[in-house]
Design a protein that fits this description.
alpha-mannosidase activity; 7-stranded beta/alpha barrel; Immunoglobulin-like; single chain; Beta-galactosidase, Chain A, domain 5; alpha+beta; glycosidase; metal-binding
Length: 895
């Protein structure tokens, strides 16, 4: 006999076709009704709140007096919560974000006494190739999903799902979706007709005698007649036993049956029965950029700086950091960061990104300044923090406030360090602090922006440089011959073509790359969910443009050239979106190309004024090599992907949408043939495609005017979402895009691309130690009047002058993704992962901290401990093995 596990639930999009507050009104009534119903109907076993805990916070902010009642029902197993804080998108958030989503949820659930241990992912638009590893790090050994699974290949609803790290979980696919028993009629005979069909279909795919009945749907309330209907089913269906149940009990039943499960490995993005909406990664690209900026702020700047402060005796601002994470993760819900909500909802998302920025920057400035002030340096200096947490040479873009713009820069040993003045601005020093008005400050300072190179010996630490002012004006160099379109350094020769594209010769390999950086603009007949080609498209490239260029700066550190062009593109779609209009508009584009004298990388900062509707703008990088696959960074690793996807079955098999090889990425995509290749790094540009097995197409902008549309060429049938205008999603106006090119020999791994991407993503942080105020005495320092900085500084002990190396790794393939205080004890958490494709063995890690008592391996949840690592008197220990794409969490305890 089969056993049908009936899961009563709701699917709760916190915002989507309505705003958060609209849906919260409904949520409050839902939970009130649910608690009343459960307490009244003793046969009602349980109800699942969509695998989330943010709904508890949202509800209790309105009804705090219901806390104990809600907690009791959760502890009794009547209301099922977690393991997620919010139902995530799995491709735009980085590994730390997905991990913190679960970590925050776990700590909320502990307050309520119980949470579900199933990786419930009903509506994420495809599944990340690292999700099994992330789940297992929290003791979650199973996953349930609706989208992305290739049922034609699997021929089953249960399977073993393996991450690229090698971790695997038992996975359950929902072939009929997460609402296969929604809106059951109160007329049981009518309900039986639907249920019979559903059960019959599910039995075909089940590998055991257990099937999963999902009694719920988006934003809907529990059905009070479900318990009576289950009794009716058990009385009338002799072939199936029905039980209202939990996902955990269902998974246990499947596992105990010991089925022979087929294995699927890596990401799951096949749109066979459910749409996967791959193009959400380029909808509202400005929010993808804001997301990456916020992730970097918390992970690479705020937490490490606050951790260093905590190690020096300051209090760790965990609650404030946690609030920043909550705002960020709320924005990473699958519809929210997907860009496929209403404009009104996305404006609220913008505000949450601003909230993260405000919390993060306030903490960063206060704690970094406190550290720098506490060094006790009594002369003008800047301290450089290693934000990327990688070793080696990096560029520093610094800002100082001084009386004279000419100065000599020296390191801690007194060596003169070459630097380049980029910009000088005269400002009123009163603008540097609100409290300056209290001392009637009337004094001008020179704001000097300059650059130089720093060579970090450690992954975590800081270096100090001293500033000796000289009188006179600084020279901003422009040394390149006027009119020349050829630029060189030790690594590259760059030629600027008449159309603004560039030819690059790699001096180390002798390889020449022609016609790089051509812009391509095509029509987009899709919506916020999907790019869809225009039936009779007009594709415009910048190959026929006439470009102008000028040298912005040229010196010993770097050279920047501004390349300006106008692309004339069709203004909009016409004739039922089947072609682009004859009316044209200009897309003014200015690219600032920067070459560095000591870093093998070409940076691009492209400013686009978008004046066109319903189109997609890309920039093209022909690699000069041929391959049938690319490599792109995903969470904690790198994934190999085919340039083309098999679309032979989508029409005959009536798939939900046509599979397109439009892919997501984290911080880089690499294309190589094993001997040579190129990597394109990015800051928040999350979509790419490979053209003709040779060219990387990086999406800069995709502007569309509707949330959802029906009958797309690549997605027939109903609209996704609803048919509502989204003028903000057209992305009109000025946009700034940052990306970089790294030509290389060998493959991405041998070229150290993950570390290069980390350095591009999180530049070193420069902090000035003081600003002397001449008119009120040299003893007055402007930063000292900031109460928060002074408060933190008063707690600090043992801050060293000069340079300090705190944590040092040996392998460049090991990337630190987190440096933070432990959640529940006075310990330091270091999370690192092997970004390379080969196992790292016997890795030496050095921690230059006093009073270390032990270093242990722990899980992502920080509550289960593994091997204790033997640490010597110098603070060094060895990691025996770190497998490719595996993330490890170290807990450092102190005496």
């Amino acid at each position: 006999m089969h056993r049908a596990h009936v899961i009563s639930h709701t699917h709760w999009d916190r915002e989507w076709y309505k705003t958060f507050q609209h849906f919260r009104v409904r949520l409050v009534h839902l939970i009130d009704k649910l608690m009343d119903m459960i307490e009244k109907d003793k046969d009602y076993k349980c109800f699942m709140l969509d695998g989330q805990t943010v709904v508890l916070e949202d509800y209790l902010q309105i009804k705090p007096k219901s806390h104990e009642r809600l907690k009791r029902l959760i502890q009794e197993g009547k209301i099922i919560i977690g393991p997620w804080y919010i139902q995530p998108d799995e491709f735009v958030p980085d590994g730390e974000s997905l991990l913190r989503n679960l970590l925050i949820s776990d700590r909320i659930a502990r307050d309520f006494g119980k949470q579900m241990k199933v990786g419930y992912l009903p509506d994420s638009f495809g599944q990340s190739g690292q999700m099994p590893q992330i789940l297992k790090g929290f003791g979650i050994n199973s996953a349930v999903m609706m989208r992305g699974v290739p049922l034609h290949e699997l021929q089953a609803s249960e399977f073993a799902w393996e991450a690229i790290s090698g971790d695997d979980v038992v996975a359950v696919y929902l072939p009929l979706g997460y609402s296969n028993a929604m809106f059951l009629p109160k007329d049981f005979e009518k309900a039986d007709i639907r249920m019979k069909k559903t059960v019959s279909e599910l039995k075909k795919w089940a590998t055991t005698d257990n099937i999963l009945i999902m009694n719920g749907v988006d934003h809907e309330w529990p059905e009070p007649h479900i318990t009576n209907y289950i009794k009716h089913l058990n009385e009338t269906d002799s072939e199936t036993e029905y039980v209202q149940d939990t996902l955990e009990d269902y998974i246990d039943s499947v596992v105990n049956a010991k089925p022979n499960l087929k294995k699927l490995a890596g990401e799951l993005i096949i749109p066979e029965r459910s749409r996967v909406h791959t193009s959400i990664v380029s909808s509202r690209i400005y929010q993808k950029q804001a997301n990456r900026k916020a992730e970097a702020l918390l992970e690479k700047y705020v937490e490490p700086i606050c951790s260093i402060s905590w190690l020096k005796n300051a209090k760790y601002p965990g609650e404030l950091i946690n609030q920043g994470w909550k705002y960020l993760i709320q924005n990473q819900a699958h519809d929210s960061i997907g860009g496929c909500c209403t404009d009104e909802a996305h404006r609220e998302i913008d505000q949450r990104f601003t909230d993260v920025e405000n919390i993060g920057q306030t903490l960063l400035k206060s704690y970094s300044r406190a550290i720098v002030r506490q060094t006790g340096i009594d002369r003008l200096a800047i301290v450089i923090f290693n934000s990327s947490m990688t070793k080696g040479k990096q560029l520093v873009n610094a800002v100082i406030y001084v009386d004279d713009e000419r100065f000599i820069l020296k390191d801690a040993d007194g060596n003169v360090i070459p630097h380049q003045i980029d910009k000088v601005t005269e400002i009123n020093a009163a603008s540097l602090s609100i409290w300056s008005a209290g001392i009637n400050l009337k004094e001008t300072k020179k704001k000097v922006e300059f650059s130089f190179y720093v060579d970090f010996n450690s992954n975590v630490g800081y270096k100090t440089y001293f500033i000796e002012e000289e009188e006179g004006e600084a020279e901003i160099k422009q040394e390149t011959e006027k009119g020349s379109s050829r630029f060189e350094n030790d690594f590259f020769t760059v030629e600027i073509n008449e159309n603004g594209s560039i030819n690059v010769t790699d001096k180390q390999t002798g390889r020449r790359y022609d016609k790089l950086h051509v812009f391509e603009d095509c029509g987009d007949a899709g919506d916020t969910y999907n790019f869809s080609p225009v039936k009779n498209d007009t594709v415009v490239t910048s190959e026929t443009s006439k470009a102008e260029f000028e040298i912005v700066e040229s010196g010993d550190i770097k050279t920047t050239i501004a390349i300006k062009l106008n692309m004339e593109v069709p203004k909009k779609l016409v004739d039922n979106d089947e072609r682009r209009s004859d009316e044209r508009v200009l897309l003014p584009i200015t690219t600032y190309l920067t070459l560095y004298s000591k870093i093998k990388r070409i940076d691009f900062k492209t400013v686009v004024e978008n004046n066109a509707f319903d189109h997609r703008l890309r920039v093209l990088f022909p690699s000069g090599v041929k391959s049938d696959h690319s490599f792109a960074e995903i969470q904690f690793g790198t994934l190999k992907r085919p340039n083309k996807m098999d679309d032979s079955k989508w029409e005959t098999g009536k798939w939900a949408e046509k599979p397109l090889p439009i892919y997501s990425q984290q911080k880089f995509v690499d294309f190589n043939d094993g001997e040579y290749g190129i990597a394109v790094l990015n800051r928040g540009l999350t979509e790419y495609e490979i053209y003709d097995d040779t060219t990387i197409a990086l999406t800069l902008l995709r502007g569309v005017g509707m949330m959802g549309k029906r009958e797309l060429l690549i997605r027939p049938g109903r609209p996704s979402g609803i048919e509502v205008p989204t003028p903000d999603a057209l992305c009109l106006g000025i946009h700034v895009f940052e990306y970089a090119l790294v030509p290389h020999a060998g493959n991405w791994d041998e070229a150290g691309i993950p570390a290069a991407a980390a350095e591009f993503d999180a530049p070193a942080l420069a902090v000035q130690n003081m600003i002397k105020l001449n008119n009120v005495g040299d003893e007055v320092k402007l930063f000292e009047v900031e109460t928060l900085t002074k408060h933190i500084q008063s707690q600090l002990q043992g801050v060293k002058q000069g340079d300090e190396d705190i944590i040092k790794l040996s392998s460049r393939n090991l990337i630190i993704s987190a440096l933070k205080k432990a959640e529940d004890e006075e310990a330091l958490i270091i999370r690192l992962y092997n970004a390379g494709s080969s196992t790292v063995k016997n890795e030496t890690i050095s921690i230059n901290l006093e009073n270390i008592s032990e270093v242990v391996l722990t899980n992502f949840n920080e509550d289960l401990e593994g091997d204790k690592l033997s640490i010597d008197d110098e603070g060094s220990f060895i990691l025996p093995v770190v497998k490719p794409y595996c993330a490890l969490t170290l807990k450092v305890r102190f005496k």
